[in-house]
Amino acid sequence: MKSAGILRTNADFRRYWLSSTLSTLGSQLSLLAFPLLVLSIGGSAAQAGTVATCSMVTRTLLRLPAGHLADRLDRRMIMVGTDVVRLVALASIPLASGLGGLGQAQLLGVAVVEGAATAMFSPAATIAVRDVVPEKDLTDALSRSQTAMASSSLIGPFLGGWLFTLDPILPFAVDAASYGVSAVLLLRIGIRPTERVADSERDNRLTAGLRWLTHQRALLAALIFAAGINIVSAAAQVTMVVSLRQSGAGGTAIGAVMACAGIGGLLGAAAAPWLIKRNPAGRLFLLIGMVWALGLAIFSRTTLPWAIGPVLIVVVFFSPPAGIVVGRAVLVLAPRDLLGRVSTATGLMMAGLASAGPIVAGSFVDSLGASRTWLVLAGTAAVVTLLSSVPLLRETSLDATEDDRGGAPKDADEPLPAPAGEDDAGAAGLVPAPPGPRPGSGGS
Questions:
Q1: Which pLDDT belongs to residue 423?
Q2: Burial zone of 256 (CB within 10 Å; 0-12 exposed, 13-18 middle, 19+ buried)
Q3: Do 221 and 171 share a structural domain?
Q4: Distance CA 325, CA 272 (A)
Q5: What is d(CA 122, CA 82) in angstroms, rounded to the nearest whole number?
């Protein structure tokens, strides 16, 4: 089934996808507007950074507890409730501005409340995708979500900047409204009840997801690859901006180059189903890693924006398929009663490592220079790829099922077989959960 087909035939996924698209776009609007608003009311650059940092720290600290709640409580009500909380938090900004009482403390409070609600929302959204989409359609569903997310990331910041020029409060009003629309759409989703696991068989520990992951060889190899590329990607963003600025490029040129990453992501998400069906996970990861290594090496030889942009499109083009393979494997292979905790555990591992990228990149650029930093990043991508993807070349547990390759359909509720190469501990899985409504940062 093609990705457009699932939107026509699956009403619940259509509502989920519309909710995700609208609210992610809202997040991107306020992503740029938040620091601009802090500065516009007299805040410093450090205060602007503190708002974003507090939101990130809150989400990180609450990841594991959020997964635990998603495994035990009504997922749809968690999603709707957190959307309402975030609507109220964002709507307080226009309200306070209209009353003349908007200040740094309130913006910081909004960031913390919204970060906490987002942390609670994400694992519930992960499980909801698995509940409303049959296994045979997961690849196309995740591809559709990736496309929507890439589109929002491409146009959102520009639209947010434009709205901010019209009225500094307008991006936050639109962002709040998107939460309301998301909540209404989610209320109309009919989530199928899952089979209850007996209390004597249920692992109720907060760290159950992490414990399960430690027994999954294929999953850990994929996590090493994805986490390594995430670190390199985060470091590359900082290195790109600094190197272009040092070469004399203006803000418009730098913005155009960074927009090329959004173009690459959008094209890659559209092509992902085709690439996934024709390449096993190990070979796909090897291809992606080598493209990243080669592209970063090219960046070390030029600082011309017109040369860097097309290469950046090609490099980022291959990233969405990897995220889809990993997200699909988690949804299909993780035990249903642990899915919330597994998804948050993988996200914690990935986000925790990637957060070090910008700091490392800045230190390397200061000490080695931009050109050598690009070579270090290229070498890192190559080493991580060889260490993680080569062992997966003969591993089949991460690949799409026969359903995705045109085989006979399987009942979505049929028990899933354990993948080859795993022990008797249970099914094996992979990484990041699909992007649910409001997975963004800054304003989300």
A1: 32
A2: middle
A3: no
A4: 9
A5: 10
Q: Are residues 152 and 212 in the same domain?
A: no
Burial 8-28 (b: 16+ CB within 10 A, else e): eebebbbbbbbbbbbbbbbbb
Residue 247 backbone dihedrals phi, psi, to 5 degrees: -85, -5
Are 50 and 178 within 8 A, CB to CB?
no
Determine contact, residues 342/67, Cβ cutoff 8 Å.
Answer: yes
Taking the chain (444 residues) in runs of 10, the rounded mean pLDDT of each run is 64 86 79 77 73 75 81 84 93 92 89 87 80 81 80 76 85 91 89 53 68 79 84 84 81 76 85 86 90 95 90 89 80 76 75 69 84 94 90 75 40 29 28 33 37
pLDDT confidence of residue 414:
30
Same domain, 248 and 372: yes
Query: Per-residue b/e over 76-109, b at no fewer than 16 CB within 10 Å?
Result: bebbbbbbebbbbbbbbbbebbeeeebebebbbe
Residues 178 and 241 in one domain: no
- In whole angstroms, what is the distance from residue 332 CA to residue 354 CA? 25
Half-sphere CA count of 45, side-chain side, radius 13 A:
0
**Burial of 414 per CB tally in 10 Å (0-12, 13-18, 19+):** exposed
* Secondary structure of residue 101 in the 3-state scheme: coil
122 plus 246 within the same structural domain = no
Alpha-carbon distance of 137 to 349, in angstroms, equals: 27
Domain enclosing residue 34, as ranges: 3-187
DSSP code for 433? P
**pTM for the full model?**
0.65
Count of structural domains within the chain: 2
Query: Which of 372, 392, 412 lies at the terminal end of a domain, its last residue?
Result: 392
CA distances in angstroms from 197 to 29, 203, 287, 338, listed in the order given: 41, 10, 40, 10
Instruction: Flag whether 377 is in a domain.
Output: yes
Are residues 122 and 436 in contact, defined by beta-carbon separation less than 8 angstroms?
Answer: yes
| Per-residue confidence (pLDDT) for residue 413, from 0 to 100 | 32
d(CA 249, CA 176): 36
SS3 per residue for 289-343: HHHHHHHHHHHCCCCCHHHHHHHHHHHHHCHHHHHHHHHHHHHHHCCHHHHHHHH
Q: Give the Cα separation of 80 and 182 in Å (integer).
A: 8
What is the CATH classification number for the domain harbouring 217?
1.20.1250.20
Count of other CB atoms within 10 angstroms of residue 214: 12
pLDDT at position 251, please? 63
141, 261: one domain = no
Q: Residues with Cβ < 8 Å from 417, sequence gap 6 or more?
A: none
Q: What is the pLDDT of residue 200?
A: 47
